[in-house]
Amino acid sequence: MKKDAAAYVKKCDKCQRHAPIPHMPSKTLNPITSLWPFAQWGMDIVGHLPIAAVQMKFLFVATDYFSKWVEAETYASIKDKDVTKFVWKNIICRFRIPQSIIADNGQQFDSIVFQNFCSKLKIQNFYSTPRYPQSNGQIEATNKTLLIVLKKILDQAKGK
């Protein structure tokens, strides 16, 4: 079965075009783990996406570090109030108040509005190293997978 799958992937044009190029890490990786489900989330904004009829240009993505559960939503523009609303609606109301959030240094995550929101709920904010997205590797890996899947789906939609 493994040989059949490998043969199929070698013949699949879409699989070849959109497959990630494997890279070996230059140093030993130090994993960031969570002790229980939905206690620690990684967040990021992916954009600019190809504009569709509904003008959604950005994808807001959150990944739970324990279960690898993904929450994602599209936006035309993303402001700090959108991030706060997303965390409330998609994480707190559905799962629980997280212990911590790991995000990049984007203005939406580093704003006073978002910091006050997290402070009131006793959520710790951690920020990845500037210009080094690998330090928030879980969300970056999720983003890479989501973009590959979106490209394949959009490629199929163009052909119809």
Characterization of the model:
Pfam families: rve (PF00665). One of its GO terms (molecular function) is nucleic acid binding. Residues 33-160 form the Integrase catalytic domain. By secondary structure, this protein is of the alpha/beta class. The protein has one domain: 2-Layer Sandwich (Nucleotidyltransferase, domain 5). Helix content is 38%, strand content 18%. The chain is built from five helices and five strands; from the N terminus they run ααβββαβαβα. The protein has a five-stranded mixed beta sheet, with helices on both faces. The longest helix has 23 residues, at 137-159. The chain is globular and about 55 Å long. It starts with a helix and ends with a helix.
Sum up the structure in keywords.
single chain; 160 residues; alpha/beta; Nucleotidyltransferase, domain 5; five-stranded mixed sheet
Helices and strands in order:
Elements: H1 2-11, H2 13-18, E1 40-47, E2 58-64, E3 70-75, H3 80-92, E4 100-103, H4 112-120, E5 124-127, H5 137-159
Parallel strand pairs: 1-4, 4-5
Antiparallel strand pairs: 1-2, 2-3
Sketch the topology as an H/E string, one letter per element. HHEEEHEHEH
CATH architecture term: 2-Layer Sandwich
Backbone structural class:
alpha/beta
Radius of gyration: 18 Å
Oligomer state equals single chain
Summarize the structure.
GO terms for molecular function: nucleic acid binding. This protein has 5 helices and 5 strands; from the N terminus they run ααβββαβαβα. With 160 residues, the protein is of the alpha/beta class.
